[in-house]
Amino acid sequence: MEKIYETAYAKINLGLDVLGKRSDGYHEVRMVMQSVGLSDAVEIEEGEGLVVETDHSGLAGGPDNLAWKAAELLARCCGKIPNVHIRLNKKIFLAAGLAGGSSDAAAVMRGLSRLWQLDLTAPELEKLAAELGSDIPFCITGGTALAEGRGEILTELPEAPELLLVLAKPKLEVATGWVYGNFRQQKVNQRPDIDGIIKALEQSATGLLLESCGNVLESVTIPAHPVIAEIKQKMLAAGATCALMSGSGPTVFAVAEKKEITERILTELSELDLETAVTTTVQKERI
């Protein structure tokens, strides 16, 4: 029996700006999103009925899982019966601001397109993915992209240089809806320079890229969870050239110039109760 394998890459936000609230209740965003090597392994094969299994005790595999919803959506839209068995081997931290669930869903859509020989293009998959969640369209191919609207309007950008990263997540969960619901423009002290990030990518100017990074959602999440600010401070003290919260949090990523600095960062963070990983930026998948 054929088995399909897909890799679901996590993402970070090199820049995240919120422009205002839309009439549909979502927020208008302008973000530069970037895939990173921390990833889940997704296995798909034909089976009896729809089954989603995970190897993480904190993540259920039932109908509330985005991978399940992705299989149902693709089946419904393409006239298929979702008799498939999906296994999620988790490495991406849960509820972390790294789009782990979104990336799993995107991987399921890519994998089922192959299994069912649908030959769907990336834009076709992205359009479907937007019905499930704002981060899923980006996760279809990943890489480096400008995300606008509620996050589903994507413009491919020049690939970011390979950056060495340390990811650190405190043992807490942050609800994305709560963060956006409590966002207030007047509380933002520093905005990312999204145009500066794009210019830096076009010029392969790593220094300008890191100077332009920022995340306005820190203005909500950090006051509620000061440990995020502590993680950032420790990362910078250990030699990181940039430290920033990803998405709505609580994961923080640090950019390190060399392996020795990643080791210093991990040592500096060791007294805190964190999930950590060392990884790099990765390029776009071609479909």
Automatic annotation (TrEMBL):
Domain GHMP kinase C-terminal: start-end pairs: 199-271
Cited InterPro entries: GHMP_kinase_C_dom, GHMP_kinase_C_sf, GHMP_kinase_N_dom, IspE, Ribosomal_Su5_D2-typ_SF, Ribsml_uS5_D2-typ_fold_subgr
Entry's Gene Ontology BP terms: isopentenyl diphosphate biosynthetic process, methylerythritol 4-phosphate pathway; terpenoid biosynthetic process
Reaction(s) catalysed (UniProt annotation): 4-CDP-2-C-methyl-D-erythritol + ATP = 4-CDP-2-C-methyl-D-erythritol 2-phosphate + ADP + H(+)
UniProt enzyme class: transferase
Enzyme Commission number: 2.7.1.148
A Pfam family: GHMP_kinases_N
Annotated pathway: Isoprenoid biosynthesis; isopentenyl diphosphate biosynthesis via DXP pathway; isopentenyl diphosphate from 1-deoxy-D-xylulose 5-phosphate: step 3/6
Top-rank lineage group of the source organism: Bacteria
Domain GHMP kinase N-terminal: 65-143
HAMAP family: IspE
Its job: Catalyzes the phosphorylation of the position 2 hydroxy group of 4-diphosphocytidyl-2C-methyl-D-erythritol.
Protein family per UniProt: Belongs to the GHMP kinase family. IspE subfamily.
Name used for this protein in its record: 4-diphosphocytidyl-2-C-methyl-D-erythritol kinase
UniProt source species: Phascolarctobacterium faecium
Lineage, top ranks: Bacteria, Bacillati, Bacillota, Negativicutes, Acidaminococcales
